[in-house]
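Q:
Got a chain?
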Amino acid sequence: YDDDFFMNRLKQPAHTSRSDYATGLKRWLKYFPRDQLLVLDYKDIAEEPAGLLTKVLRHLGLPNPEKLVEGIKEEDLKKKVNSGLKSTVALRQSLRAKMENYLKPFADSFSDMRRSFLES
């Protein structure tokens, strides 16, 4: 299939709405106070799993989250589960560029919102 085939599908409302995290977060904020929501950076799953888990436990109100996380082995924190299958087919560079261009405004909007959450 050519690039347009995939781009037309990506631009369908069902797919676009799943790419627009900022709008989804705004929807949640209509019903829940900001302090009840925890927005995390995905890269911390791989880079700082202990720190990320500590943040989650603290947000949930568990006592001594640092102590709880200290008891988990480093290799267990970094173990991948439900990570899916690795694709052996590379995305065409022409399609990647079109997808990135189309999705950039969604990513930028969410990054701005996420940054405001991380700063508070």
Summary: Residues 35 and 120 are 9 Å apart (CA to CA). Residues 93-119 form the longest helix (27 residues).
